[in-house]
Amino acid sequence: MLLKFFKFLIRVSKFFFAITGFISVILVIIILFFGDTSHIRRALIFENFNQMMGFEEKYNHFAANTPIKILKVFYIGTINKFKKKKIPNIEILINSENLKILEAQRKRLVDVDIPFYAKAKIKITEHESKTTELIKVKIRAKGDREMHRLDVDQMSYKIDVRNDNFIFGMEEMSIQKPIIRNYGWELLFHEIIKNEDLIYLKIIPINLIRNSKKLGLFVLEEGFSKELLERQNRKDGPIIGIEESLNPIFPMLTYDYYSENKWISNHPDIYITSRENLELLKKNSTDEQYKISNYFDIDKWAKFFAIADVLKGYHATVPKSVKLYYNPSNGLFEPIAFDAHIGSGYEEFIFLDFFENNNINCGYVCEDKDWLKVFFNKKNDKFIKLYLEYLEKYTSKEYLNIINDIVKNKIEPFNELVYSEYSSFDRVFFKGFLPYYFDLEPIIKRAELIRIKLNSFKNFKLLKKDENNVDFIQKKIEKKEFKSLTDLGDIKKLDKLIFSKGLWILNDLKIIDKTILLEDGAILYLKGESYFQGSENKMLVEGNGMIVQLEGIINLKNIKFKNLKNIKIDGLNWSGSINVINSNVKINDVEIVSSKGEDAINLVNSESFVNNLKILNSASDAIDVDFGNLSFTKIYCIKAYNDCLDTSGAMIKGDHLYGEDIGDKLASFGEQSNVNLKNINGSNIDIGVVSKDDSYVEIDKLELSNTRIYAAAYIKKFFFGPAKLKINSFKNFSQIESDKKNFINAEENTLIVNQKNIQSNINSKEIFYLLN
Q: ∠553-557-561 over CA atoms, to 5°?
């Protein structure tokens, strides 16, 4: 009886499916072919089908939309699926209570009181070793799109490390699936940004685990913090985004500062100045008199927009994506690359089209056309010229070869990890049907298109440059008033030049054999090529004033500077009595005596050559080199309250460094400095030579007397790696090596003296009590 019932049920089911199938076919035919608008319906259906499948040409660079590409993905993916992945394991250790918080955040539950962060621990296991590290973190769900929150095993996280610890040198970071930023394309974007000395984010592939459950391949993306800046040779300055919950369209948007309370409390002048500049940007950017070069580092922005053009990384250029870094060295904003999310479309578009067709259709990018017109405006002649130069550079065969090398060395190993998971290609708001496949060929063809557009851009006429432009620094001093050399009269007839209080703007200044007096509060702001020379006797420059060379060239020969002082300027971080920024420097036979300020001389991101420099009676550091290169023959420091030579992220090569009566360190090399010195001598020194924070230092000969600590290698800023200090010849080493207090080597660092490894004898976190 039961068997007959099942047979009857099967016959009914077949009849039902036959009828419904027939009706479905009829409905499809009616929808596709009946009615005077059926052709529109067909077009919409097939267009959406092609988009979902990824068959259109615009998906060629990231979808496996041909049989050959599909075979490649499965072949490479299968091979790598059984290989051991040489990437770190990150395990989230979280209890059930905090996991419920994450799940509620993921689901965006609004009817319960959800804490902003959950508590967890991160366990890190490097692929090259079995050692693990356990770090306390705050963790929360992140992401606006549903792709960030598909389920608890694929969700995206925002992580903030607690208790002064770091994960791969980072304090703040995100963890998300690679599809969130379109896989290898985001990595390529940041590698090119890095190659051009723009601010990029670390992106690290990881195996993610949660409470022993393997979740597969994720990426760790760096957050926005001072560690990001200092690691890339920038002084700490505000990082600014926008408040996305409000209107995100320029100029109606609201700017939002990262670590805002820190800047308000500790550096109110920098905070106020940068915020005032942003408000002026929103209010005055359309004015003919508004000059972007007063507020933006146009060279870096020209690079940024040109790279976005080549890769179609337009999402990175809109205000909600690109972050602003306010550089306190020059008072200008730089771009921080973020979220390029290179996808489909924009096959024919580049920013240059704004000049050909003001009403051009450029998709979501044109929603922020007012922001882009801040830069792409005919009045911005210097920016446009730089942009065109970089666009030509990045589409050249030579640079495309550089991109190919980046792909081969950095992107292909990452893609192999992705292929091993047979990942779907990215459709922004959903996963595509076909697998992801990285193909650079469409970008090579795009470069050809861009070169054609560049060649056709011959009739574009730039507006005449305003030669009387007054930049930001000039406007901020003395209520926008400044003085020039003509205010002194005919200087050829003067033996002594007296500069009164205030700002003096001096272009291509050349002074030979004249005494210079800087009255209290005088600032010499040098531009272009500056030249100071004493012939037989040293030329004297004295007084309670400050000297600044911003960009250009400065040549100092046979000069004695006396009693100069640092003058604080709101919105800027100039620390020396003499400041040289982004310049070429030549110093020959120069003395700096009795300077007042954080540094006697501060060289920032400059190419510097020094032959015989003496600094006497410095109130703090004698020479501070922030980034850039320094080569020298002889440097002498006599009586410095702090360090004699202090470097951060610099390349240093020198013959002889001598110090006497140094209150802190004779030579302090930090933040990835690379140093090679022949001789260091000193007496009455607190600490001799220090290598810290991923610096490499090699000293041929070291001779010190009456010194508390001769040499030290350690990590001060824990987002940097270990340091190395190698001293090839240290006089009397055999007599003092038994005293461990004379040589300090913190764990994980390397200290070699006279070909002997000094064993680690202190923890890096304890070293500051010993050195201070």
A: 95
Q: Which residues pair with 745 in a beta bridge?
A: 713
Phi, psi of 381 (to 5 degrees): -60, -40
Q: Find, among 415, 331, 320, 329, the residue nearest to 368 by Cα.
A: 320
The vertex-236 CA angle with 231 and 238, nearest 5°, equals: 120
Name the phi and psi angles at 527, rounded to 5. Answer: -130, 155
0.85 exceeded by pTM: no
Q: Buried b / exposed e across 212-249, counting CB within 10 Å, b at 16+? A: eeebbbbbbbbbbbbbbbbbbbbbbbbbbbbeeeeebb
pLDDT in tens, 731-746: 877 666 656 668 888 8
Strand, coil or helix: 584: strand
**Helix locations, 34-152, DSSP H:** 38-53, 67-81, 96-106
Per-residue pLDDT tens digits for 202-221: 999 999 999 999 999 999 99
Per-residue model confidence as pLDDT tens digits over 617-635 = 999 999 999 999 999 999 9
Dihedral of the alpha carbons of 152, 157, 161, 166, in degrees to the nearest 10: 110
Closest CA to 241 of 105, 376, 121, 339: 339
Q: How far apart are CA 249 and CA 367, in angstroms?
A: 7
The one-letter amino acid code at 495 reads: D
Q: Which two tokens stand for residue 545?
A: 């004033």
- If 0-12 CB within 10 Å is exposed, 13-18 middle and 19+ buried, where does residue 252 land? exposed
Give yes or no for a contact between 596 and 626, defined as CB atoms under 8 angstroms apart. Answer: no
Question: Can you name the residues that pair with 680 across neighbouring β-strands?
Answer: 657, 702
With 0-12 / 13-18 / 19 or more C-beta atoms within 10 angstroms meaning exposed / middle / buried, residue 748 is middle
Cα 146 to Cα 109, 151, 747, distances in angstroms: 14, 9, 45
CA dist 242 and 715 (Å) reads 34
Partnered with residue 750 across adjacent β-strands are: 724
The pairing of strands 576-593 and 696-714 is unpaired
> What DSSP string describes 186-220?
HHHHHHHHHHTT-B---EEEEEEEETTEEEEEEEE
- H or E, element range at 397: helix 397-406
